[in-house]
Amino acid sequence: MTRTESVSLDGGSMDLFTWLPESGSGPGIIVIQEIFGVGEYIRDVAERLAAAGYVVGAPDVFWRFSPGWVASHDADGLNASFGKMQQLDVPMAIADCSAAAAHLATLPEVSGGVGVLGFCMGGTLAWGVAGAGDPACCVSYYGSGVPSMLDLVDSVTCPTLFHFGNEDQFLPNEGVEALNERIAGKPNFSINVENAGHAFDNHANPMFYNESAAKAGWAKTMAFLSTHLPA
Questions:
Q1: Eight-state DSSP code of residue 43
Q2: At a CB cut-off of 8 Å and minimum separation 6, what does 4 contact?
Q3: The model's pTM
Q4: How far is CA 23 from CA 2, 45, 159, 223, in A?
């Protein structure tokens, strides 16, 4: 079952696309989009999580300047989406996603807490949400902005799993190494590095998808969720 919630914010309202599990209730997860919008791929991720027993909400991150943005996963779509990313006020987007998580938590179908999971741009925003609030847990897939937000390591208390590819053209390995050094000795953080490039989980994007890395990373994600936000 799917529906669209409306999250009231300063400046208007943001769509929160929502999926319910077959059971009708469960823990909540906010899924934060890539720059391509809440399209085929993000909806597939939401359906996967709903099938696993979660109530899923995907906020329309670009709503303030391009509501409903969905781009194709090709060179033209990538270039157009980079343009949208340049318009994004990142601190405001983090606040909007935090508000989406708070809204999801109020739904009668949600019980057991709300986690946050994001991909690419969404991986950076998910890390920001973990720093701005107190989600049950955070999963950040190849957030290229994460290495520039290392100060959050000292304030984030929720269990957090980072996924990276060791051949990511948008995120040098030095950034991952800096994060690894910063989280040393902090048991609530873990890093998974796959032998892949950027956006390796996105099956809708033939430029980046890596099937073996996607399956391995998703298995680790589900194991992490089953520990820290069991459905």
A1: H
A2: 15, 16, 17, 18
A3: 0.97
A4: 13, 18, 26, 20
